[in-house]
Design goal:
120 residues, three-stranded antiparallel beta sheet, five-stranded antiparallel beta sheet, mainly beta
Length: 120
């Protein structure tokens, strides 16, 4: 089971080289900028990422890859996204807006030939 964590947004912006896709409408409120991420199994503590588009957090496991994202379902405060990446990785994420500056992301898929499943 993944660890539950919140992401806190701040100011700033950086465009990452990732596949373009229209983000879910629920992410119209959360703004780009500096995000603090907790729950990454590869990191013992919080990480900070500067993102122009919070929808990029849906592919957190493949954040350095070129991926194509598709919104497959959307509710009032959450969205389900599937993505595929160049080189064979893929995943699906459920993003839930807690506040305009706080998200919960459950993500799972295949990365470097092995499964992953955790909560950010």
């Amino acid at each position: 089971m993944g660890r539950a964590v919140a992401l806190a947004g701040g100011a700033g912006a950086l465009a990452l080289v990732l596949g373009a896709a229209k983000g879910p409408a629920i992410l119209a409120q959360p703004i780009g900028g500096l995000w603090e991420i907790r729950g990454d199994p590869a990191s013992p503590g919080p990480q900070r990422l500067c993102l122009a588009d919070p929808a990029l957090l849906a592919q957190f496991e493949h954040r350095r890859a070129t991926c194509t994202r598709v919104v497959v379902g959307e509710q009032a405060l959450s969205a389900d996204m599937h993505y595929t990446c160049a080189g064979g990785g893929f995943g699906q994420s459920t993003m839930t807006v807690l506040t305009p500056r706080s998200l919960r992301i459950h993500t799972q898929g295949i990365s470097r030939g092995a499964p992953f499943n955790y909560v950010l």
